[in-house]
Amino acid sequence: DGGITQSPKYLFRKEGQNVTLSCEQNLNHDAMYWYRQDPGQGLRLIYYSQIVNDFQKGDIAEGYSVSREKKESFPLTVTSAQKNPTAFYLCASSIGAWAGTDASPLHFGNGTRLTVT
Amino acid sequence: SQQGEEDPQALSIQEGENATMNCSYKTSINNLQWYRQNSGRGLVHLILIRSNEREKHSGRLRVTLDTSKKSSSLLITASRAADTASYFCATDGSSNTGKLIFGQGTTLQVKP
Hints:
The complex is a heterodimer of chains A (117) and B (112).
Chain A: E1 4-7, E2 10-13, E3 19-25, E4 31-37, E5 43-51, E6 54-57, E7 64-66, E8 76-78, E9 87-94, E10 107-108, E11 112-116
Parallel strand pairs in A: 2-11
Antiparallel strand pairs in A: 1-3, 3-8, 4-5, 4-9, 5-6, 7-8, 9-10, 9-11
Chain B: E1 5-7, E2 10-14, E3 19-24, E4 31-37, E5 43-50, E6 55-58, E7 61-66, E8 71-76, E9 85-91, E10 101-102, E11 106-111
Parallel strand pairs in B: 2-11
Antiparallel strand pairs in B: 1-3, 3-8, 4-5, 4-9, 6-7, 7-8, 9-10, 9-11
């Protein structure tokens, strides 16, 4: 079955450590996205990539980094510079590069819950 | 920046009743999408309505869009306990960047 796989489901880290969240899709989608969700809140866009080897900052990119070396993979690194990293992180993809403009629905993974203490 | 805002924030109904959720947004849009999120899971796309459409149906879902009021509503008819979830609207905000901006969601509880 095609879909988006995020791993691990739960991740615990000590403050000051960098951590990388995995996101893999086998849907052959062009675009991939990372969102952050805090309790009782909506989703905030961290980074997105519309094509391999290219990505753009979203609304809350500070303290995060990404890479898009392969079409199917879009890992997110939460660095020690991120002041409040504890959150639920969601990866998504869309068939078209313009999810909003060309009406491509987002397909989501089941998230990684990161806890930093 | 917050583009979509859902109302109410929380809704509790009995099974069999209809549930209506509203979404307001600030800028012009190309389309508006509704998503559902079960607790601790990713979001699932429900329905998309384009800016030139006024109403759309999908099974027990009915979505309306009023671009003059910059608002949309999602109606779930004959609700079931399995409809218990959070519901989010998302818009492109006419930014033409490809980004979708999500509201804060409505949490729906359907009591059996």
